[in-house]
Design a protein that fits this description.
By secondary structure, the protein is α+β, with helices and mostly antiparallel strands. 44% of the residues lie in helices and 18% in strands. The strands form three sheets. Strands 6, 7, 8, 9, 10, 11, 12, 13 and 14 form a nine-stranded antiparallel beta sheet that branches. Helix 7 packs antiparallel against helix 9 and helix 9 packs across helix 12. The chain is elongated.
Length: 754
């Protein structure tokens, strides 16, 4: 009877969750966005009920497929997989049912087939080696050393202190610090060992005896058995010839050696117990410097010694970038002179005396000596020779120095290809203005990597976005957004919520919830909610949100009315707003008043743009009009619209002559384009604001040019190709296969559901 009541309660919770996806929000608005969290917490309190939840979710998935309720499938599947990862033990029959359902999704369009394939691959490994998904998640998130699975992950939360209140920043700092200190490497290793044993042996596992045995061991002994368990699980998951029974036998041997007592079959049977899933490694950063993101990623890639001082390290990073630029300038200066070389370029033609220095030179010098290039010897860049980046990189992803061959004529062995063993999950908190800063930082990072590659081959970079609006920002918005509503400041979040209902249900609801939780008075209940809820939701988002939505980054070139000023170049992600600028001098003010009386308010503009047509052919259109301002929006109001074009709204002033005299009316002109040029024909300046951020306002502007931002690596390769190709307008060679536009990917749970 008790089991029936539990099953009915879980089914009711799941059905309530699905009704919220249909737009039927709970009667208590406080529970909105917390239904998924409360469901998983209910199972955490009684882990033996996880199999009941899995069966219910499988039935609901099959019912959604039969009834063609596709918007239920991805939320149910994410909930199911998260339950399986945390479950103490799952039967082979249940795993097989979920695996078969995921294979059915391969016949559906994206993103269903993409998510179905990903989960089918994971479930196939989990069937053979139970507990493998839990083990891999803990190892990577806690950066535990393991040769069979050497991957590491870290969550970076970036918040603009000028956009969020001090109370929110302090609350998030406190929560992330508490999450980081809540577990130790020893505890995480014990969790992995115990979970692997219980997942494989089920109720026959003596958990109390296993815990006591591990508690009495030293750290080195715990690490030894941890490596044994990880090797056994990874071996079973990677070898096709190993079945579930063989894997259980391997773990039984390790279990008996650990327990030092009776075989698992003779152990007293008990109920399944939950093993905590530790919070991931989270660091909170107040975004104060423009290049702070790049610095943090470099520090994550390069293992630091205990004696290294953070302040000194930050200073070395700054010096490294300056030296890198100086080195490039020197190399460019050096290439102006031609050098006649009598060297054949063949190593066996080297004189015998040139062979001796190889024995005493360092590995880096040997490598550069054997790489025979042109007649000009370029000065090595700091990124290649500087000890900050190269020495001490003993991680599995570090590039080993090539060993020179002492015999002439024997080529050096090519270095092993780098592997992306590190994953940086960058979470942005704020509104559209913080995403504008992210677009700037991402563009700058891509330009650095084009100049000197370091992060790209080593790091898997993922972006996440949680909207937070406080209404107490110290940075005013643009003139058109003085009284902006949260909806206007969170257009990206609104688009993601319309495209992905699960993102709307779990993430967009945090927009107002985080400020409320941060400002709650201190009490035991307050800490109970914030420490669990905020950290858990962020962890769930980065763990399960793997489908990116790519937003086009646009570049803008700004020309000023002062000829002495060089044009400025910048990028934006969401919006460009141009408004008529107030006149400064008395003479300009008089001329403006006279012009306004005759022609109406605003300024005369010449607009040239490429019209977006169905055939996707470029059609250039030119127009002259009088306008008081314009707004270019890169985020469409409907998820069905094209995400790779600009929606331009120009407020045009129309002069009307009638019997009562001259009057003027404002008409909204709307157009779609990807490239547009706007110029003030009467040389009157206007102001340009990017991404609704008043800190990024350009004044005294007479012309702007907007176009999709190109990927810096594409631009570099295109320049190289044009030097040797007569077809300058066409992409030939490698350029044809390179991404042309710079897209900013933001991860959600489903991507864009068509």
């Amino acid at each position: 009877m008790e089991s029936t009541e539990v099953e009915s309660d879980i089914l009711r919770r799941v059905r309530t969750l699905l009704r919220e996806l249909d737009g039927h929000h709970p009667a208590c608005q406080r529970d909105r966005g917390m239904l998924r969290w409360t469901l998983h917490k209910k199972i955490d309190q009684n882990p033996s009920n996880s199999s009941i939840l899995v069966r219910i979710l499988v039935k609901e998935l099959e019912r959604a497929e039969r009834s063609d309720y596709r918007h239920y499938i991805i939320p149910l599947l994410h909930t199911l997989m998260y339950t399986l990862i945390k479950a103490p033990c799952t039967s082979d029959e249940l795993c097989s049912r979920v695996y078969d359902f995921c294979k059915k999704l391969l016949t559906l369009p994206k993103p269903f087939c993409t998510i179905g394939l990903d989960y089918a691959v994971r479930l196939k490994m989990e069937k053979t080696a139970p507990g493998m998904l839990y083990q891999r998640m803990v190892i990577s998130e806690q950066s535990l050393k393991s040769d069979p699975y050497p991957y590491q992950e870290k969550i970076f939360i970036f918040a603009d202190p000028e956009l969020l209140s001090e109370a929110i920043c302090n609350a998030l700092v406190t929560d992330t610090q508490a999450a980081r200190l809540s577990q130790s490497p020893r505890a995480c290793m014990c969790y992995v060992i115990i979970h692997a044993m219980q997942a494989a042996l089920g109720e026959g596992c003596d958990l109390s005896g296993l815990r006591m045995s591990l508690q009495d061991m030293s750290m080195s002994e715990v690490e030894h058995w941890f490596q044994q368990v990880v090797a056994a699980v990874e071996c079973a998951g990677s070898e096709a010839s190993v079945d579930r029974g063989q894997h259980v036998e391997r773990l039984e041997k390790i279990y008996c050696a650990l327990l030092g007592s009776l075989p698992p079959g003779d152990a007293p049977l008990g109920r399944l117990q939950g093993i905590p899933l530790p919070n991931p490694n989270i660091s909170f950063h107040l975004w104060k410097e423009d290049d702070q993101l790049w610095k943090e990623l470099v520090l994550f890639i390069r293992p630091l010694s205990q004696s290294c001082e953070p302040d000194r390290l930050s200073q070395d990073l700054d010096n490294f970038e300056i030296q890198d630029i100086i080195s490039e300038c020197e190399c460019c200066e050096q290439t102006r002179f031609s050098v006649l070389s009598t060297d054949s370029g063949i190593e066996r033609d080297l004189p015998p005396a040139a062979e001796e220095p190889f024995a005493t030179c360092s590995a880096d010098t040997e490598q550069s000596r054997l790489q025979r290039k042109g007649g000009i010897k370029k000065k090595p860049s700091p990124l290649e020779s500087m000890a900050f980046l190269q020495t001490g990189c003993n991680s599995p992803g570090a590039k080993p120095a090539a060993k020179a061959q002492k015999r002439t004529g024997v080529p050096a062995k090519p270095p092993a290809p780098l592997q992306r063993l590190h994953t940086a999950r960058v979470v942005l908190l704020g509104d559209d203005r913080v995403l504008g800063r992210l677009a700037q930082a991402y563009h700058s990072l891509r330009k650095r990597e084009t100049r000197r590659v370091f992060l790209t081959p080593r790091l898997n970079l993922q972006f996440y976005y949680i909207p937070v609006v406080t209404g107490q920002s110290s940075v005013p918005t643009a003139a058109t957004h003085d009284a902006a509503s949260p909806k206007e400041l969170c257009e990206v979040a609104g688009y993601l919520g319309r495209a992905d209902p699960w993102y709307e249900s779990n993430i967009n609801t945090l927009c107002h919830m985080i400020p409320k939780l941060a400002t709650m008075p201190s009490s035991p209940s307050k800490h109970l909610v914030t420490d669990l809820f905020i950290t858990d939701v962020i962890a769930y988002y980065v763990r399960m949100g793997a489908q990116p939505v790519c937003f086009q980054v646009y570049t803008v070139k700004v020309f000023f009315n002062d000829p002495a000023l060089e044009p400025a170049e910048d990028v934006f992600l969401t919006e460009l707003c141009a408004q008529v600028q107030d006149s400064i001098s008395h003479r300009e003010l008089n001329l403006t008043k006279k012009k306004t009386t005759l022609e109406g308010p605003g300024i005369d503009l010449a607009v040239t743009y490429k019209k977006v047509v169905v055939s996707d052919r470029a059609k250039e259109v030119s127009a002259s009009l009088r306008s008081t301002g314009l707004v270019m929006k890169a985020i469409p109001a409907d998820e069905a619209e094209d995400l790779l074009c600009l929606n331009v709204n120009i407020t045009e002033i129309i002069k009307i002559n009638n019997l009562s005299g001259r009057s003027f009316s404002a008409v909204a002109n709307r157009l779609k384009t990807r490239d547009i040029k706007i110029r003030s024909t009467e040389q009157r300046p206007f102001a340009v604001c990017l991404d609704k951020d008043s800190r990024r306002t350009y004044r005294n502007v007479i012309s702007v040019e907007v176009s999709p931002c190109l990927e810096p690596s594409y631009c570099l390769q295109k320049t190289r190709t044009m030097k040797s190709s007569v077809h300058e307008a066409e992409d030939v060679g490698l350029v044809k296969y390179m991404p042309k536009s710079l897209l900013l990917p933001i991860n959600t749970f489903a991507g864009v559901i068509q």
